[in-house]
């Protein structure tokens, strides 16, 4: 109100001055607002001056932040090669059935940790036990046949020895008969014996010689019989070996009814329950070996020049943004990801548009960090490779420590 009254009085004095009339003398009531007007002017001036510190503070903060970021880039950032196209991977093992049958029991659940050799599931093994017993029975029968032929070979060797003895006896008889025939011939020249006696001696000699030949033939037959038995025994032994293989196969099939973990890991994506009929090759569950967890980072081809095996890597996991995981460049893929795709691009036909390709780079992580469960296959991460480091520099640093 004081400002308004002062304004009105000023307007009246201005009009009077223009008309040549004396200005109205200020009254006591009109003089009262003057101190208020004098006090209001400095207040306006203070408001205008108060904006400057704020602007200066903002400029100082901007300069400080820019300097900080610039210093960080100069000392560290310009040596980092980064990509957000990176994911945690692992060599996942797919557990499958080797034999068919109904699932009798399941010993694990999803997200359960298992050790190598732990039982995962069991298939009904009744049929496989019968098959194993049948194979064992056939093997026992064949082994008995091998033993029988062995005994026959022993008898054949005895027959050979007997035939050999008969040859000796026949030869001795032939020598005696030859001597009698010679004496009868000498007596017949002197007419001291009859012609009938000479003929009998001659017949006895021929018979003795025939007996020698018969004994020799019997000896040869006995030896041939032994050879035949030996061949039969060899054949029977080979059949027994086949039966032994059948037994081992039946035992192996029986062991396949128990599905066990091949490595340490965590069970996931379980696709079996009690009573499920499974076929050979059917997917039963996935086993994630946490020890093989690593990071696959897809860098642009323009970033590869600075990447070397052994360089230090900073990994930021999206699920744990405040955790800095340290890794090492393990290897670089021999080709870009597009080459290994199901349908590789064919740039030799049609219009060509150049696209920056990405090359997978494997980053290994300390097993102690992996055991903490921070890195799980499929998680997204941000990878920063420190190009100032290498396998040689890391080794030198470790030696200095």
TrEMBL record:
Domain Multidrug resistance protein MdtA-like alpha-helical hairpin, first and last residues per copy: 161-226
Occurrences of domain Multidrug resistance protein MdtA-like barrel-sandwich hybrid (ranges): 96-288
SUPFAM superfamilies, per the entry: HlyD-like secretion proteins
Domain named CusB-like beta-barrel: residues: 293-335
Coiled-coil regions listed in the entry: 160-253
Gene3D superfamilies associated with the record: 2.40.30.170, 2.40.50.100, Helix hairpin bin
Keyword annotations of the record: Coiled coil, Membrane, Transmembrane, Transmembrane helix
Stretch list, region Disordered: 1-44
Taxonomy, superkingdom: Bacteria
GO biological process: transmembrane transport
UniProt cross-references to Pfam families, sorted A to Z: Beta-barrel_RND_2 (PF25954), BSH_RND (PF25917), HH_MFP_RND (PF25876)
Entry keyword annotation includes Phosphoprotein: no
Chain segments annotated as transmembrane: 54-74
Protein name: Membrane fusion protein (Multidrug efflux system)
Species the sequence originates in: Microvirga lupini
Upper lineage: Bacteria, Pseudomonadati, Pseudomonadota, Alphaproteobacteria, Hyphomicrobiales
């Amino acid at each position: 109100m004081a400002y308004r009254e002062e304004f009105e009085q000023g307007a009246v004095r201005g009009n009077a001055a223009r008309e040549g009339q004396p200005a109205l003398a200020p009254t006591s009531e009109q003089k009262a607002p003057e101190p208020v007007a004098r006090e209001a002017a400095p207040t306006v001036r203070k408001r205008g001056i108060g904006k400057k510190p704020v602007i200066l503070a903002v400029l100082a903060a901007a300069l400080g932040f820019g300097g900080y970021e610039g210093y960080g880039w100069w000392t560290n950032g310009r040596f980092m090669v980064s990509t957000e196209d990176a994911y945690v991977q692992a060599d996942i093992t797919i557990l499958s059935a080797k034999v068919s049958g109904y699932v009798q029991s399941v010993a694990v659940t999803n997200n359960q940790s298992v050790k190598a050799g732990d039982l995962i599931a069991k298939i009904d093994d009744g049929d496989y036990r019968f098959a194993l017993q049948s194979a064992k029975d056939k093997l026992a029968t064949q082994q008995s046949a091998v033993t029988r032929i062995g005994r026959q070979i022993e008898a054949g060797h005895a027959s050979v020895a007997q035939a050999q003895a008969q040859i000796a006896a026949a030869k001795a008889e032939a020598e005696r008969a030859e001597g009698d025939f010679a004496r009868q011939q000498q007596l017949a020249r002197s007419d001291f014996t009859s012609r009938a006696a000479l003929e009998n001696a001659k017949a006895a000699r021929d018979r003795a010689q025939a007996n020698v030949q018969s004994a020799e033939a019997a000896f040869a037959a006995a030896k041939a019989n032994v050879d035949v038995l030996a061949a039969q025994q060899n054949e029977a032994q080979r059949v027994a070996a086949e039966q032994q293989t059948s037994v081992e196969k039946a035992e192996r099939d029986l062991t396949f009814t128990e599905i066990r973990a091949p490595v340490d890991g965590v069970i996931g994506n379980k696709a079996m329950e009690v009573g499920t009929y499974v076929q050979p090759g059917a997917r039963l569950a996935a086993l994630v070996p946490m020890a093989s967890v690593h990071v696959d980072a897809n860098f642009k081809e323009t970033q590869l020049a600075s990447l070397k095996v052994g360089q230090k890597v900073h990994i930021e996991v999206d699920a744990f943004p405040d955790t800095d995981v340290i890794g090492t460049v393990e290897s670089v893929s021999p080709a870009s990801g597009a080459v290994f795709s199901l349908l590789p691009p064919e740039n030799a036909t049609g219009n060509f548009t150049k696209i920056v390709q990405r090359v997978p780079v494997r980053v290994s992580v300390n097993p102690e960090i992996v055991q903490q469960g921070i890195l799980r296959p499929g998680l997204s991460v941000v990878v920063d490779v420190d190009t100032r480091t290498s396998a040689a520099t890391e080794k030198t640093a470790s030696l200095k420590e």
